[in-house]
């Protein structure tokens, strides 16, 4: 399936402002909302519009989408779960775009039940099934690996959909019955009155846990939960330009849910190893170069190691101990912009040997030099 162009879905240019994106979204909602547009594909179209808006209206998501496309959204470096899940029910519950959507809906509906409410009840049952739990995992990288990116293998002990029952929780060949409490909807509505006002709350059915059906004969493999615990080896791609403390989210790589809900996510925490040559301050690196006293006096050229190869650094005559030199663009890449790097600071330290370490000839040379300098 070809990747969707979110800008094309909303009918805006890539450089459009947030105000232009919001305006386009409002117009499309009023055109394709299922209670206004009765065409067969209106629901699917509205889901695509909401998916595009949820990405482009979030500056961080938009930045990742512009850099990596949809693949970047599946390796988020933030933990803001709650983006579009692909189900029309998410659109009607709002998510990150709830406030603007509520404003638009107010132009259509007011009070009581409506076609929108009926559509919501019919399309959101799966969303009420409990989501699988997330898994956290930590891995360590060298500075070199953080720059180039790395493919890693990790072993997880996680829940997966039961292969015997396909996640239904029912024994193969057995029948299930419609839940009498929610009458198959997977949710129950509670109406509370307070004076002249009524408050209606929709919740997961406590009997069927949102499935709409009750299992007569549970699956023997998963005991009716719809999932089993297995050991799994995963191949993960860590993108280049990762910094220490970064948290990468792999959507759907977490535990499978009971009763057919969406899978949880896998969070990979990045820890950078201490380097034998460099000290690190965010994207900047620090290197200590030791030279002899004569070289500090007459000057020299040093070979400075960097993460990108050896660099020549000219040390001028008369350099004092503690002098620093800056090598631009030789630090770590900036997360989200790997072409932009920090700096490498070289601190020059002069090695002054103790007098007792010198032989007779060396001591004589220093004494003669002292007489000439004074």
Per DSSP E runs of 2 or more residues, the count of β-strands stands at 18
Strand order of the largest sheet: 1-9-10-2
Q: Work out the radius of gyration.
A: 31 Å
Q: Which structural class do you get from the secondary structure elements?
A: alpha+beta
SSE order, one letter for each helix or strand: HHHHHEHHHEHEEEEEEEEEEHEEEEEEH
What are the low-pLDDT stretches, counting only 5+ consecutive residues below 50? 76-99, 105-129
What is the beta-strand fraction? 25-35%
CATH architectural designation of the domain at 1-124: Orthogonal Bundle
Report the biggest beta sheet as strand number plus sense, adding barrel if it closes: 4 strands, mixed
Task: Give the proportion of residues in helices.
Answer: 25-40%
CATH class of the domain at 1-124: Mainly Alpha
For CATH, the homologous superfamily of the domain at 1-124 is named as DnaJ domain
N-C termini distance: 82 Å
In the CATH hierarchy, the third-tier topology of the domain at 1-124 is known as: Helix Hairpins
| Molecular shape | elongated
The helix count comes to: 11
Mean of all residue-level pLDDT scores: 76
């Amino acid at each position: 399936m070809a990747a969707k162009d979110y800008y094309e879905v909303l009918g805006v240019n890539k450089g459009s402002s947030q105000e232009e994106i919001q305006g386009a979204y409002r117009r499309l909602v009023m055109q394709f909302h299922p209670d206004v547009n009765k065409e067969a594909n209106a629901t699917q179209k509205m889901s695509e519009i909401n998916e595009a808006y949820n990405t482009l209206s979030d500056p961080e998501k938009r930045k990742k989408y512009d850099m990596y496309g949809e693949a970047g959204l599946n390796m988020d470096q933030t933990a803001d779960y709650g983006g579009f899940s692909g189900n029309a029910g998410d659109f009607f519950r709002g998510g990150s775009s709830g406030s603007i959507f509520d404003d638009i809906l107010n132009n259509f509906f007011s009070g009581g039940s409506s076609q929108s409410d009926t559509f919501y009840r019919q399309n959101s049952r799966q969303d009420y099934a409990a989501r699988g739990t997330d898994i956290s995992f930590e891995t360590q990288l060298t500075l070199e690996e953080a720059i180039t990116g790395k493919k890693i293998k990790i072993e997880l002990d996680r829940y997966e959909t039961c292969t015997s029952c396909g996640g239904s929780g029912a024994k193969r060949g057995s029948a299930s019955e419609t839940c009498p409490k929610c009458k198959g909807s997977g949710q129950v509505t509670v109406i509370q009155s307070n004076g002249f006002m009524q408050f209606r709350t929709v919740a997961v059915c406590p009997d069927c846990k949102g499935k709409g059906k009750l299992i007569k004969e549970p699956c023997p493999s998963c005991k009716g939960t719809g999932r089993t615990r297995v050991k799994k080896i995963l191949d993960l791609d860590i993108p280049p330009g990762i910094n220490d403390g970064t948290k990468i989210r792999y959507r759907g790589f977490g535990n499978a849910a009971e009763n057919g809900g969406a899978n949880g996510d896998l969070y990979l925490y990045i820890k950078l190893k201490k380097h034998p040559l460099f000290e690190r301050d965010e994207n900047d690196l620090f290197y200590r170069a030791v030279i002899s006293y004569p070289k500090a006096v007459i000057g020299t050229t040093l070979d400075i190691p960097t993460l990108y190869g050896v660099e020549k650094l000219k040390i001028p005559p008369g350099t004092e101990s503690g002098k620093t030199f800056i090598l631009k663009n030789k630090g770590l890449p900036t997360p989200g912009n790997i072409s932009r790097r920090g700096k490498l600071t070289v601190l020059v330290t002069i090695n002054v040997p103790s007098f007792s370490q010198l032989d007779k000839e060396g001591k004589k040379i220093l004494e003669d030099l002292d007489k000439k300098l004074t």
